[in-house]
Write a structure and sequence with these properties.
Chain B: It catalyses: L-glutamyl-tRNA(Gln) + L-glutamine + ATP + H2O = L-glutaminyl-tRNA(Gln) + L-glutamate + ADP + phosphate + H(+). Chain B: Keywords: ATP-binding, Chloroplast, Ligase, Mitochondrion, Nucleotide-binding, Plastid, Protein biosynthesis. The structure holds 2 protein chains of 2 kinds. By secondary structure, chain A is mainly alpha-helical. Chain A has a domain at 52-89. Helix content of chain A is 28%, strand content 3%. By secondary structure, chain B is of the alpha/beta class. Chain B is 34% helix and 12% strand. In chain B, helix 8 links the parallel strand 7 and strand 8 (338-342). The termini of chain B are far apart. Classes of the chains: A mainly alpha, B alpha/beta.
Chain lengths: 145, 538
């Protein structure tokens, strides 16, 4: 997946606006119109044409989730709709804005790297689907190409 | 950024019409709460009432517990708030009664009947996050919040229904059942903490715990006519809360009064060494905010600066919700607040930024559900197949969709375009809030663009459902505390549908929210948001 993305960067065609299909939105999203008044500048560090539409089968494989063909179709349509909608973030000027990992955080909440024994091991064992005294049983791993 | 509304003694004199275009303000009379002749006095704290009557011997914990269990039995077939009812309720109540009769001390939550959302781990009780992949899973430990409740004598009556793994705004995405709104059984209770909100509204429990990642406590509080309190990120330990989006998740509280929500919050707050994102900030005594009516002066909130967020009253918000919010603003003014309008320019960016961040983080957090160490396993002849089938069959549609969206957004080459960018937008949103809260003590807005809608109405249109979160997600991105309390009714259902006012505070300033919220609630005319009696129930 990573290699494919790199290839896309190398062979990029000139940037084009991501089309946000107005008809996709229901009326309750009318106030999304706001965003056109916010920063019309394109950020220079993102090339929109790099963003290939989602390949649902590949994503499902990466996420280790099996989907039926009808799920791929249904899910796929909805995902593409939502990812298109995410595209509006591309229009915001975020040059020199630091990314916020989370809300304000106090530092120094680290603990000693020392293991502690959890007393209720029986209860943990009771939840394991396939257990063979000491080992969690799983099937073999086949080497993929 | 600030625009002051001119000379007003009362906001209703102002030209709010400019927001409505050619529409006139919906008749104020139609949005005033239905006056129930028997409940003209302001709502009482159930926690304080329970404590008083147990210590005075007026009643026993067993009697209280029995009456709640019986009400649950009667109303559950129609409401379906609970995924599991505890088998130990009467035993725990008896233990409290025995301690009291022996003259031993009992905790501040003794005998209080509490519902817990099913994504919060309760030892020995099923905790499924409303997902098939965790069907029958019984955690080996209590979440810290649950542990604290138990230490204080609280009785966990059961686990409440929710949208699977917190992903949803209606509780329809539960793998097991759909919860009905006690105000109208054909409507949703909101989500994802719909079961917790509805259970308190229907008096199946006194208070309950939920979780709020993008509004999942505040929106159902609005839909069900109860108080929903979202604390500052880090106020309450997340240990034992099944993670959805780690930078956004918090555990929140539901109650029928602001005082109850505040007392429950106090009970579960505090630094926890098992959650390195939990804060070491002092936890103030929230209970002292529940002053009695007699101690109010005529303008008890004099000098409190309130900012009404302009972007939340624009097109796309139901007129009934808008009027209820404006009336609430007038009420605050009458109490002495200085209400002005504020603008948060990055407001509408919050929704896509939130969904990028939440789905990205969830794709990582839900990778632990692989059928190997716990949960439902679908056996296969090869390891990857075992993962794929266990997850494919164990997760519902919305969960799968969000994991895939997150996987896409975090893929190599896309991280900058989506996740990092959303984090940068988050910085912009935080800055806007900080600027507004530098000049105001609290900000107010509706909790949702509409009252509760019909079951099935938004199920197939993800963007329509996401749009309903517009009022709440920015608060999670900024990590701020917020409370929602019922402020009015709009048309719909047998006796109208409740609408909630959201109040947002500065980081760790839950005290101000509780003080303002409590006074607002106690002075609201016709207060007492009680849903209609269920058909076939005495």
């Amino acid at each position: 997946m990573a290699t494919r993305a790199l290839l896309a960067v190398v062979t990029a065609s000139p940037p084009r606006m991501i089309q946000i299909k107005a008809s996709t939105f229901s009326s309750s999203l009318k106030f999304q119109r706001h965003i056109t008044t916010i920063g019309r500048c394109f950020s220079s560090d993102t090339n929109p044409s790099v963003l290939q539409p989602p390949d649902v089968s590949r994503l499902a494989e990466t996420a280790r989730i099996s989907l039926t063909p009808s799920e791929i179709e249904e899910c796929g349509a909805k995902i593409r709709q939502v990812i298109d909608w995410f595209g509006q973030l591309q229009q915001v000027d975020v040059s020199s804005v630091e990314p916020a990992i989370r809300a304000e955080m106090e530092g120094g909440n680290l603990r000693e790297d020392a293991p502690e024994t959890f007393e209720n091991r029986e209860s943990i064992r009771a939840s394991i689907p396939s257990f063979d005294e000491v080992y969690l049983k799983v099937p073999k791993v086949l080497n993929k190409e | 950024m600030l625009s002051t509304l001119q000379p007003p003694r009362s906001l209703t004199l102002l030209p709010f019409r400019r927001f409505h275009g050619s529409k006139t303000i919906a008749s104020l009379a139609s949005s005033s709460p239905t006056l129930d002749a028997s409940s003209v006095s302001p709502p009482q704290s159930q926690i304080l009432t329970t404590r008083r009557s147990l210590l005075s011997g007026e009643t026993t914990a067993s009697e209280i517990a029995k009456s709640y269990l019986s009400r649950i039995r009667l109303t559950e077939p129609q409401l379906k708030c609970f995924l599991h009812v505890s088998e130990n309720v009467l035993k725990e109540a008896q233990e409290i009664d025995q301690r009291i009769s022996r003259g031993e001390g009992v905790g501040p939550l003794a005998g209080v009947v509490i519902g817990v959302k099913d994504n919060i781990c309760t030892e020995g009780m099923p905790s499924t996050a409303a997902s098939r992949i965790l069907e029958h899973y019984r955690p080996p430990f209590d979440a810290t919040a649950v542990k604290k409740i138990k230490e204080m004598g609280g009785i966990v009556v059961g686990k409440t229904n929710m949208d699977e793994f917190g992903m949803g705004s209606t509780t329809e995405a539960s793998a097991f059942q759909v919860t009905a709104n006690p105000w109208d059984l054909t409507r949703v209770p909101g989500g994802s903490s719909g079961g917790s909100a509805a259970a308190v509204a229907a008096n199946q429990c006194m208070v309950s715990l939920g979780s709020d990642t993008g509004g999942s406590v505040r929106q159902p509080a609005s839909f069900c006519g109860v108080v929903g309190l979202k604390p500052t990120y880090g106020r309450v330990s997340r240990f034992g809360l099944m993670a959805y989006a780690s930078s956004l998740d918090v555990i929140g509280c539901f109650g029928s009064t602001v005082a109850d929500a505040g007392m429950l919050l106090h009970a579960v707050s505090g630094y926890d060494r098992f959650d390195s994102t939990s804060s070491k900030q002092d936890v103030p005594e929230f209970e002292s905010q529940s002053l009695s009516m007699d101690s109010f002066e005529s303008k008890p909130l004099k000098g409190v600066r309130v900012g009404l967020i302009r972007e939340t009253l624009e097109e796309g918000v139901d007129s009934g919700v808008r009027s209820a919010t404006q009336e609430a603003a007038s009420h605050l003014e009458a109490l002495g607040c200085l209400v002005t309008e504020v603008s948060l320019p990055s407001f509408s960016l919050g929704l896509p930024a939130y969904y990028v961040i939440a789905s990205s983080e969830s794709s990582s957090n839900l990778s632990r559900y692989d059928g190997v160490r716990y949960g439902n396993q679908v056996m296969a002849d090869e390891l990857n197949k075992l993962y794929e089938c266990s997850r494919g069959q164990g997760f519902g549609g919305e969960v799968k969709m969000r994991i895939l969206m997150g996987t896409y957004a975090l893929s190599a080459g896309y991280y900058d375009a989506y996740y990092k960018r959303a984090q940068q937008v988050r910085t912009l949103i935080r800055k806007d809030f900080k600027a507004a809260l530098d000049h105001n003590d609290i900000l107010i807005s509706p909790a949702a663009p509409s009252a509760a809608y019909k079951i099935g109405e938004k199920k197939d249109d993800p963007l329509a459902m996401y749009a309903g979160d517009i009022m709440t997600v920015n608060v999670n991105l900024a990590g701020l505390p917020a409370i929602v309390l019922p402020c009015g009714l709009v048309e719909g259902g047998p006796s109208g549908l409740p609408v909630g006012l959201q109040m947002i505070g500065a980081a760790f300033d839950e005290e101000t929210l509780l003080k303002v919220g409590h006074i607002f609630e106690q002075t609201l005319k016709g207060s007492g948001f009680v849903p209609p009696t269920l058909p076939n129930v005495a």
